[in-house]
Amino acid sequence: VAETDLRNAREGTDLVADHPGVVTGIFVETGDMADSGNELAWIARTDTVKIKFLAGSNQAMRLRKGQSAVWKNGYTGESVEGFVSRLDLAADAESHLLGGEALFANPRGDLVPGLLVSFTVLTGERRDVVRIPFGCLLDTAAGRAVYAIGTDTGGKTRAYLKTVETGLVTTDEVEVLSGIEAGEMVVRFGQTKLSDGDLVKILSRKEN
User: Fold this and answer.
1) Which phi and psi (to 5°) does residue 3 adopt?
2) Closest to 70 measured CA to CA, from 97, 103, 116
3) How far, in Å, CA of 77 to CA of 93, rounded?
4) By the 8 A CB rule, do 107 and 53 touch?
5) Complete DSSP assignment for 23-75
6) What are the backbone dihedrals phi and psi of residue 87, each rounded to the nearest 5 degrees, phi first?
7) How many CA atoms lie within 13 A of 205 on its CB side?
8) What is the pLDDT of residues 130-169, one digit of tens each?
């Protein structure tokens, strides 16, 4: 009887996963007795992944289920599109943060379980607006400002500090509602070393 039980046990040890994925946890050791219904291992599907996130009050007020999201691979520079798939009905009572999930395609397996990543969500869209690189902005006592390029009465090129009103903001660009006009040139690098009215030189693309 013992030999039959041992033979039956050996014949029943092969387990076949019902879908491909990555083993993220093993809960038994060699020689352990596994009871019926107990978890032996976790296998995560990685062709599509859910990124869990927590959003503060200002962010949460602009989030909606179904909004487009973009995750940028820091190694390859490629952008992967997804969307906000779930938002909690209420914020956490202690942290006051709103939890949610964003769904992204992951055909190459770049996103793996347990990875810490950041992504952006498109909460609004406007076309035909004045926009500048986000790095051009300065925070001053009067509010946000940029150095715009102009010429003085003598024809010399100078940088003039202008207070601007901003609209939609992304990690790369910012909408300017007022303060500068379309077509104006603004300083993108080294503006923290400038003072209002300083002489500047416009570098060609090749020199820069």
Assistant:
1) -65, -40
2) 103
3) 37
4) no
5) EEEE---TTPPPPTT---EEEE--SEEEEEEEE-HHHHTT--TT-EEEEE-TT
6) -130, 135
7) 0
8) 999 988 999 998 899 999 999 999 999 999 999 999 988 8
